[in-house]
User: Fold this.
Amino acid sequence: MDHRQRRSDRRHHRHPAHGLQQLLDPARREHPGNPARPRFRYRIDDLSADQPFLQTINGQPFATVPYSVHINEIASFDFPGFSPADYEQQLIDEFEQLYTEGAQRRRMMVIGLHERLSGHASRVRVLDRVLTRLREHDDLWWARKDQIAQWVFDHPDTTPWVNRDPAPISGLPGRSQ
Assistant:
């Protein structure tokens, strides 16, 4: 049994492209270096859209749950002079704009957090203030990416479908046949 499955007692059906490397071969829907790993149903590190979408791979629906770099603390705290207060304002501004747009259409805010960065005391306080402020809105759905992927699979009629050409035509990485 995989160590992640033991820890969570859940089989993972998603693929994180660590460091935003495109390790997933969507045509095979499995990790290219290890065919014994389970087939993936969705991916979580795609930068090509700002909301989840579906596409057909090998005749099956495959979900993509977006990832954001611009409000990811890895990108933010790498800038010289960028402070926790700057990050706090960035998160608040991002939320307020998306919340306003959300009155007209579905919007999603992904805050990428990494313990080694966000775990610093001053940054924990920023996150506490931001998340407390966001929690004041009772009309938000707080969800993990696996929950978002499941919602997408459960609501294919209201989820955007993306049709992409095979990799040699579209330029996307991975095998297409």
